[in-house]
Amino acid sequence: MDPTGEFSAGRFAQLAHAEIDQLIAEGRRPIVVGGTGLYLRAALADLDLRPPVSPEIRAEVEQNVAEHGPEAVWADLDPDVAATIHPRDRKRIARTIELQRSGIDPPRSSEGLWTARLRRPTLLVGLTIDREELASRIDARVDEMIAAGAAEEARAAAEAGASRTARAALGFEELLAGELDAVKRAHRAYARRQLTWMRKMEGVELIDRTGRDDSDVAREIVASLD
Fold first, then answer.
1. Mean of the pLDDT values across residues 68-97?
2. Which of 63, 148, 155, 178 is spaced 20 to 30 A from 139 at the CA atom?
3. Beta-strand (E) ranges in the chain?
4. Residue 14, Cα to own-chain centre: how many angstroms?
5. What distance separates the 2 farthest-apart alpha carbons in the chain?
């Protein structure tokens, strides 16, 4: 996607399903590696995802949230919907208001995200690792990203008019601000969210890769496939 374009889990699902189905039709084995929990679920299951709203409504809602704060906007939600959203969850509040103003019923719960019914027979593998080793790996990876020009890439995208969804990329705003430690904290927090999603998924085969190299872990995964 061009950084100025909008994207969504629903659009990703369409593209991912087509790619997976084509690979299977060719007699090949798709390997989905992730990543954001919602997008992983969108690739593997038929989720009830809402369509994107118009740019005008999205801009209007974003302005309202920026001016009044998420808690004030949260108070405008239907009470039964508001009960499922934290008053300071800016992203979900904005998305729900967008849907309401577009005449689209928002999801009433996240229950459908954890369905065990996947589109295709799937082996789910979750990798775990010692927490300190994970933090060290994350810090080293961010250092490599910075050395490879991640900050310059973020600035170029911002100058080109990066969309709201592009600016939501992990560490984007922190890179613009030159706050390296904040980028690392954002990535560590993201890793914790990945673990939360993984624990909620049914049928995940956990593999502890602490102190192991990639080849060793890959062999164990392939053995599970066979």
1. 82
2. 155
3. 124-128, 204-208
4. 16
5. 56
> For residue 207, which phi and psi values (nearest 5 degrees)?
-130, 120
Residue 186 and residue 171 in contact, taking contact as beta carbons nearer than 8 Å: yes
pLDDT surpasses 60 at 109: no
Q: At what angle do helices 180-200 and 37-44 cross, to 10 degrees?
A: 40
pTM, full prediction: 0.74
Q: Token pair for residue 79?
A: 């009470």
In a domain, 88, yes or no: yes
CATH number of the CATH domain containing 66 = 1.10.20.140
Q: At 128, is the secondary structure helix, strand, or coil?
A: strand
Host domain of residue 77: 53-106
Does residue 205 sit within a domain?
A: no
Q: How far is it, in rounded angstroms, from Cα 99 to Cα 117?
A: 26
Q: Is residue 32 part of a domain?
A: no
